[in-house]
Amino acid sequence: MKIFSGTSNIPLAKAIAENIGTELGKCTVSAFPDGETFVKIEENVRGEDVYLVQSTSPPTNHHLMEMFIMMDALRRASASRITCVLPFYGYARQDRKDQPRVPITAKLVANLLVAAGANRVLTMDLHAQQIQGFFDIPVDHLYAAPVIYEYLRKKNIQNVVVVSPDVGGLKMAYAYSQFLGSDLAIVAKRRKSASEVESMAIIGEIEGRNILMVDDLTETAGTLTSAAKILFEQGAKEVYACVSHALLNDIGIERLRKSRIDELITTDTVLRPAIEGVKITTLSVAGLLGEAIKRIHSNSSVTSLFEFKGGRTS
C-alpha cells in the first residue's frame, strides 16, 4: 500500500499516513511557466495498492486537474489499484438540473475521475448522497459525525435543540438529535442568490434553549448566520454551528465575525488559514479516513465506521 497526496491538504494526508503507520509517497508536483501542472511519481508503484488524497477545495478546478494528472501518472506507472480519497467532493451542489440548460457537474466530475484512472472512491459527507449513484465503481461514503459527536459528548451542552438551517439538511439534523437525545427544529429559508439567503420561519420550540445547528458545508456562511439571527430573535440562549466542510471565503469570515454564533465546530477535510475574530474548533478526521484505508486495503468491512452509540449516521 502507498499513499500519495496532491497539494490541496498535505497536513491531513500526512496525518492519515501517520495513523496508518507509513509515510507519504514521494512525488513532484510543480507548474510550467504557463500554469500547466507537471507531476512525476518519484518511487516505484508497479503492482501497488495506491491511495491518492486530494480535497477539491478552492481553487477547485486547479486541485481537480492536479488530481486527474496524478492519477494518470500512477495508472501509467502500473499501479494495480488507485483509490481516490476525497475528504471534500467539490461541485457536489450541482447534482441535478433545477433550471433549464444547466449541467449536472457532480456527475461530470464522477465521469472524469473514472476516466483518469480511479478504481475506487473514498469520500466524506457528500452534499447529496445520491452522488454515490453517479459512479459505476465502488464508493465508500464516510461521515464526520462520529468525530464531531465525540467532541459534543465531552462538551456536554445542556438543554440542547438540534436545528437544521434548511429543509435539505433535515436528515443529518435528525441523526444528531437521535445521538444526543434532544429535540429537533428546522429553519425554513428562501435563497435569494448563490451568496444570499433569507431565513423565513422556525418550525419547533427553541425559546430558552441552547442550539446546535448542523450542516454539511458552508462557504459564504449566509445560511448559518441568517438562521442564527432568527434563532436569537426567537429566544435562543447560545448557538453552536456544526459543519463538516468549512470552506469559508472572505464574505463568510466577515459574516461569522458579525454574527452571534458562539462556536463553529468543523473538521480538517479542507485546509484553512488561521482566522482571527471567530471561535473555530477544528477536529481531525485523519483517524477515520486512515482506518477506512486500512480496511479497504485488507478487504475488510467498513460498515462499523458508520455506526456508533447503537445507531447509524444515515
Topology:
Blueprint: E1 2-5, H1 10-20, E2 27-31, E3 37-41, E4 49-53, H2 60-76, E5 81-86, H3 105-116, E6 120-124, E7 139-142, H4 145-155, E8 160-164, H5 170-180, E9 183-191, E10 197-203, E11 210-218, H6 222-233, E12 239-246, H7 250-258, E13 263-267, E14 280-283, H8 286-297, E15 307-308, E16 311-312
Parallel strand pairs: 1-4, 4-5, 5-6, 6-7, 8-9, 8-11, 11-12, 12-13, 13-14
Antiparallel strand pairs: 2-3, 9-10, 15-16
Helix pairs in contact: 1-8
Structural account:
This protein has 314 residues and is an alpha/beta fold. It has 2 domains: 2-142 and 286-312, 3-Layer(aba) Sandwich (Rossmann fold), CATH 3.40.50; 145-283, Rossmann fold. 30% of the residues lie in helices and 27% in strands. The protein is built from 8 helices and 16 strands. It has helices at residues 10-20, 60-76, 105-116, 145-155, 170-180, 222-233, 250-258, 286-297; strands at residues 2-5, 27-31, 37-41, 49-53, 81-86, 120-124, 139-142, 160-164, 183-191, 197-203, 210-218, 239-246, 263-267, 280-283, 307-308, 311-312. The strands form 4 sheets. It has a 7-stranded mixed sheet with strand order 10-9-8-11-12-13-14, with helices on both faces. The protein has a 5-stranded parallel sheet with strand order 1-4-5-6-7, sandwiched between helices. β2 and β3 form a beta hairpin. α1 crosses α8. The model is unreliable at 309-314 (pLDDT under 50).
Fraction in beta strands: 25-35%
String of helices and strands: EHEEEHEHEEHEHEEEHEHEEHEE
Ranges with pLDDT <50 over ≥5 residues? 309-314
Q: What does the main sheet amount to?
A: 7 strands, mixed
Total beta-strand segments: 16
How would the global form be characterised? globular
User: Under the CATH scheme, which class of the largest domain?
Assistant: Alpha Beta
**Structural class by secondary-structure content:** alpha/beta
Distance between the termini: 30 Å
State the CATH architecture of the largest domain.
3-Layer(aba) Sandwich
Write out the strand line-up for the largest beta sheet, numbering strands in chain order: 10-9-8-11-12-13-14
Please state the CA-atom Rg, rounded to the nearest Å: 20 Å
Number of helices: 8
Helix content range: 25-40%
| Average pLDDT metric | 90
CATH topology of the largest domain: Rossmann fold
For the record, the count of structural domains works out to 2
